Amino acid sequence: MSMKIWWVFFAVLPLSEEQNRAFELDNSTCLGCLLSLLSDQLCDIYMKYGVACELWEALDRKYAESDAGRELYVNDQYHEYRMVDDRSVVEQAHEIQLLVGELAHFDCILPDKFVVGGIIAKLPPSWRSFSTSLKHKKEVITIDSLIASLDVEEKARAKDVPRSAPSDGGPSNANVVEGKSGGGNKNKNWKPKAKQNTNFKKKKNLADITCFVCGEPGRMARKCRNRKS
């Protein structure tokens, strides 16, 4: 359309001599444009077409059904989309906008109010209170204002996370240190368990042992050859 050669698809025969010369020139240019957009494998298949409108109709017959299937797939993606907590809410809202824009290519144009309501309904469970506050607003919420509100709320929550992390882990770490050092324990008789197992019996020297079976020194009774059992 930008090259003003779209008319060759709808040219009505017969053409005048001047129109025929223009048709041959624009038809050749249009064929080159269409074939240049195809992959090498598809280009080899569709090279046989010499008229642009015939090539266009062949491509339309081939891919019109797949476009219909693609529309249903994108529609299903939009309805089944659910935001999660471990990803940026603003990024996920932009993904929903991309699905809405793709549906618009299939002449399925969703109203802005419907898109706003869909984004709010798809927020993660941790954003339930925020989504409820949005529903109570009396003024009209646009898509841009909703994205801006989500961005502000997300940044505010990101600032709160580092502050709460030390308080959650701080006391437990301090308790572990106190328990090991014993400084915070009020029981004065408390002793570490490791010290209770330090008094081990020393091994006896074989020279000090006398067999009570045969009476010979340096021999243990359980290894004596004179034992009956």
Q: Could you explain the architecture of this structure?
A:
The chain has a domain at 1-63. It is 57% helix and 0% strand. It has helices spanning 17-36, 40-46, 52-80, 89-105, 112-121, 128-135, 143-181. α1 packs across α3, α3 (52-80) packs antiparallel against α4 (89-105) and α4 runs antiparallel to α7 (143-181). It is elongated, with a radius of gyration of 42 Å.
Q: Low-confidence stretches at least 5 residues in length (pLDDT < 50)?
A: 164-184
What is the CA-atom radius of gyration, in angstroms? 42 Å
The portion of residues forming beta strands comes to: under 5%
User: How widely separated are the two ends?
Assistant: 111 Å
Order of helices and strands: HHHHHHH
* E-strand count: 0
- Average pLDDT confidence is 79
Helix content: 55-70%
**Biggest sheet, open or closed, and with what strands and sense?**
none
Structural class: mainly alpha
Number of helices: 7
Choose one word for the global shape: elongated
Provide key terms for this protein.
57% helix; 229 residues; elongated
Secondary structure blueprint with pairings:
Layout: H1 17-36, H2 40-46, H3 52-80, H4 89-105, H5 112-121, H6 128-135, H7 143-181
Helix pairs in contact: 1-3, 3-4, 4-7
Task: Sum this structure up briefly.
The protein is mostly helical. The protein has seven helices and no strands.
